[in-house]
Amino acid sequence: MMYSLQCRCFGSAGTKIQRNPSFATLNSDDITYFKGVLGEKNVVQDEDRLEFVNADWMHKYKGSSRLLLLPTTTDEVSQILKYCNSRHLAVVPQGGNTGLVGGSVPVFDEVIVSMSSMNNVIDFDEVSGILVCEAGCILENLISFLDNQGFIMPLDLGAKGSCQIGGNVSTNAGGLRLIRYGSLHGTVLGLEAVLANGNVLDMLGTLRKDNTGYDLKHLFIGSEGSLGIVTKVSILTPPKLSSVNIAFLACKDYLSCQRLLLEAKRKLGEILSAFEFLDSEAMDLVLNHLEGIRNPLPPSMHNFYVLIETTGSDEAYDKEKLEAFLLRSMESGLISDGVLAQDINQASSFWRIREGIPEALMRAGPVYKYDLSLPVENMYNLVEDMRVRLAEKAKVVGYGHLGDGNLHLNISAPQYDDMILAKIEPYVYEWTSKHRGSISAEHGLGLMKANKIFYSKSHETVQVMASIKKLLDPNGILNPYKVLPHSLTSY
């Protein structure tokens, strides 16, 4: 076997990952077995298709898998994992492959198990609003399905056209509506998951209240496929409300953004459904790198922009409430300019600015991405500190879910450079730890941050996590090298 399969470098030159020698390598008998279970067309060895699923969408992480499996039922997933576990074949579960931390692609030659063929809506109860579906359902398709039923998904992401609900649940994706509907730990009522040994855990309950023993589903929400493969989900969906209003606002400084958030929570209260912010560097990137985007507040650029969305049931009341809030905020100097969307096209154009930032960053060139939870009052200080540290070497961009205290720190550079990375890491993680923040607010740990977990979690806590991993996946075949530090997961 080639050396490249034994050892990989990711991130800085000093970060080397060794292939776990206890894992077997694929042989012709394995292929024959999988074809017997799945049929010829669902066992993919085609190099072009494999090249696509071996790499993440940012082209930062690339594996060397020689096999893609496309199960269509939970039983097939069970048979795959039971066999892989007996053979010590490592597996990486894959949904829409829209992750940002290298969690959904192989590190070496792991077998890729894609959930994309398990994409059926199983049931929807229009009285309770509870949706039951398979893990491979694309988020945008679920949003469209629910829209026709008069409901909405409690989750909305910029990647909704590609990401899958199983991946969303497995990474505990946050997104744009968390301020209103909370995290998936609250809205997911149940799930079905397949363990490494092939055992199927049926936790697909649809009850709002169930206090019978340990609530094991929470182990799989956010565990990034390292404890089991999520195959089905039941999720509580809120009814679609008729009145949606969106305002795009400008603030002169970060303090004004904070005060505006506090006022929005107080004055808009129950109708506030999103509070997003971006700095002038983020706005500049979007205007320069995405086609058809216009500045909603011409002619000048402002230091900060805030997008506020309200959702309610009384259009006249909601609009009056929002307009009164905006007028008071303008008079008090919290906002220096603003516009209220007049129709659905204008509303979409406002959201396109906020949701288009990751795409604009990708088009601008190499980017280092950090997803952090921090106290709102000093969140933007990190962006300013990084600008001082990096000076002219790179452009530092700050945006994110201000209503949730979630900063997306992005550093756009001319090329990936270990000198730049050394200026960023571990400084960003140390800064976050010092302010008692989280080094992963919503993207997960994946491969990128597996060894960085101690910046946010105590050794005792991580040791318990490793014990749970060992219990549920004793051979360590599920998404190896990810989530937990390699020192605790070498078998």
From TrEMBL:
Enzyme class (EC, first level): oxidoreductase
FAD-binding PCMH-type domain segment(s): 61-240
Record has rRNA-binding as a keyword: no
InterPro entries: FAD-bd_oxidored_4_C (IPR004113), FAD-bd_PCMH (IPR016166), FAD-bd_PCMH-like_sf (IPR036318), FAD-bd_PCMH_sub1 (IPR016167), FAD-bd_PCMH_sub2 (IPR016169), FAD-linked_Oxase-like_C (IPR016164), FAD-oxidored/transferase_4 (IPR051264), Oxid_FAD_bind_N (IPR006094)
E.C. no: 1.1.99.39
Pfam families attached to this UniProt entry: FAD-oxidase_C, FAD_binding_4
Alphabetic keyword roster: FAD, Flavoprotein, Oxidoreductase
Cofactor: FAD
Catalytic activity: (R)-2-hydroxyglutarate + A = 2-oxoglutarate + AH2
Entry keyword annotation includes Endoplasmic reticulum: no
Name of the molecule in the record: D-2-hydroxyglutarate dehydrogenase
Source organism per UniProt: Manihot esculenta
